[in-house]
Amino acid sequence: MASVRRAIPALLGLATAAALLGCGDGDTSAEEAQEQFGVNLGVPIQLADCTDWNEGSVDERLGTIRQIREFAGGPSGSPAGHGTTLPDEDAYELFENYCDEQFAGGFKLYKLYTRAAALGGLQ
Predict the structure, then answer these.
(1) What is the pLDDT of residues 69-90, one digit of tens each?
(2) 3 state SS for the chain
(3) Domain ranges of the chain
């Protein structure tokens, strides 16, 4: 059952990535993203949850945090400006604390991150 749960988001992520890579100027490739952020938890960043976090390696977790920071911070040319972000160490501690709870398996990492950043971090 877990393999099916992981396969569906992965396929959706591949379809989304293929669609995005097919649009625009084609400057960003999957290899460039991996070079920039490192490896991630293996699911699209908007679908990564605490279960994925708990199953990931330290390198995958750090790559995911970098991707979430980039996602939450927004593009530099955005009319709305940059979103609030957390230091990577704080984000790692945030996910470690929340994802350690049994009830948190389905919590989306980006939602935990953006809410914590909006509130000023861990304090």
Answers:
(1) 988 887 656 566 678 899 999 9
(2) CHHHHHHHHHHHHHHHHHHHHCCCCCCCCHHHHHHHHCCCCCCCCCCCEHHHHHHCCHHHHHHHHHHHHHHHHCCCCCCCCCCCCCCHHHHHHHHHHHHCCHHHCCCEHHHHHHHHHHCCCCC
(3) 2-118
